[in-house]
Structures are given as structure tokens and as C-alpha cells.
Amino acid sequence: MAALGLQLQQRFPVLTGFSYSCLSSATIHARAVRSVSSLSSKLKKWNNCSRLPRRLVVGLGASFWTQFMNVAGNSKSFMASARLKSSVEQALQNVEWPEQFPFKEEDFQRFDESPDSLFYEAPRFVTHIDDAAIAALTKYYSEVFPPSNTPGVSILDMCSSWVSHFPKGYKQERIVGMGMNEEELKRNPVLTDYVVQDLNSNPKLPFEDNSFDVITNVVSVDYLTKPLDVFQEMHRVLKPGGLAIMSFSNRCFWTKAISIWTSTGDTDHALIVGSYFHYAGGFEPPQTVHLSPNPGHSDPMYIVYSRKLSTA
């Protein structure tokens, strides 16, 4: 289990606006040791029965899962049902989801539980992914968005800021930004309107049913502490057939990201976001796109997307 402890420390995502030097090595080690201790006790319990606890498997990460399955044989679990492979793009293929949402309340806790309104009080006029990843995301948007100036099209950019990474010159009659800092939202040139709202305090979206053709969320899905509530609201405000695009990288404000995210890797993240779509209900099976422009040399970029069922 010592090797697993090292792996957990290595799997922390790259931090945006945060340095590991801000945390003592003892603090990081203690968090890893607590995870290892918990896993160890669950492993001992599993050794005495025939079924691997589902909660144990979720969040272990692809590399440990591969090693574990060599021992576990044909045991069924959430991750086993997904037939997890190394590629993020294959993570949501042929998933057999459990009947119940497999995550617990503790999975959505953060290292910093202070009010998000305080954390985002000061504007940050910076980008949280590098230029290559931004260009890849913008290109993807250009391929899947409705054409610019399409009559009747409305777009919602959730967790928005001073930039949305939409194609240059892209316009629609209605593009609403929802974020935490008004000064940032005011600076966003693509928005026609904006709403300041903390989705972790109030996940209810202030829009009518069937309002939007597209919903985007750029590198912020990892901060949602009530994701099912938010995704159910996304379903409500999307038009039938509407598209929801969740993009993520390995960069984040680590202290504000949920614990299940900071303790897992990119392939697991695709499964986590995919599970939000699935358990919210009313969406097509979610799919993943790997957009990383230069793996190993620039920030990775991944998409998990789905459409609201036309009959929903």
C-alpha cells in the first residue's frame, strides 16, 4: 500500500493560481495517508467476501485499477462495468452504470470550504489553460456551435468569466454568461447578458424551461459541489436536442476542487462528468473527445458532451 500512497500524491492535478509550496509536505502526506488507510481497511474487508465494494473502486484511478483487476479477477464494479481503458476518449464507451449514483457527500467536499463568494471576490483577468489548449477548444466550438447570427439561438456559458473562448467574432442574439465575479463578466465581449450566481449555494438556474440551444462550461465542472442538481437544471433549461459541453484539463484551484476530482486522474474525470449526465436523467449517453493539441508539451484538453433527449 505504500506504493499507492506515492501514486495518490503524484495524481494531484496541476494547480491554477496555487503553488504546492503553500501546503507543507506533511499536510499533503497526511491527506494521502488518510486515503491509503481508508483503502487499506476496505481491501481487508473485501478479502473476506466475493464482491468488491463499489465505492472503493470509484476514484482509484486507471493505473491502480489495472493492477487491482489482475488480482480481483472477474469482480464486478462501477469501473469494471465501464471496461476502463487508458484513453480518456474511450472512457464512456459501453458503460453499464449502477442503479444509484455511486458517489457520496464526502466526495464533493473541498480542502477550502470557506464561502466561494470570498474566493472569487477579486477579479482574475487571466486564462486558466495555455494558448494551445484554448485554441483547440475554440476550434472545437467552431465545429459544433450553430452558425454565428442564427435566428433564435441562445447560448449559456456557465461558470463564465472575462473570456469564453468562443470563435473570434462569434455572435448570437442571446449569449448569457453565469459566473461569480461581475467585473470579469462585464469584460466578456461575447456576452449579451450575464448573471452573478454561486451554483454551489444555489444550483437553481434563473431561466425558463427550454431556453438554450447550447450550454458550455470551461474547466469549472470540477468545482461543482451539487453537480446532479446543476445538471438537472441544465436539462430543464436546454431546448430538446440542445447540446451541453463540459470541458476540463488537469489545471484547477486545487483547494476549491471537489475531493473526488483531486484524488483521481483524467480518465476518471471523464467518467465522473459522464455520470453527472447519466444520473441527472433525460440526456443522451455522454461522449468524450480528447482535444489535447500536443500531449506532454501543452495543457491537456478534454470534452464530455451530451444532448438533451428530443422527447424529454
Automatic annotation (TrEMBL):
Domain of life: Eukaryota
Residue ranges constituting the Methyltransferase type domain according to the UniProt record: 183-245
Source organism of the structure: Hibiscus syriacus (Rose of Sharon)
GO molecular function, one term: S-adenosylmethionine-dependent methyltransferase activity
Coiled coil feature spans: none
Pfam families reported for this sequence: Methyltransf_11
Name by which UniProt lists this protein: Cytidine deaminase-like
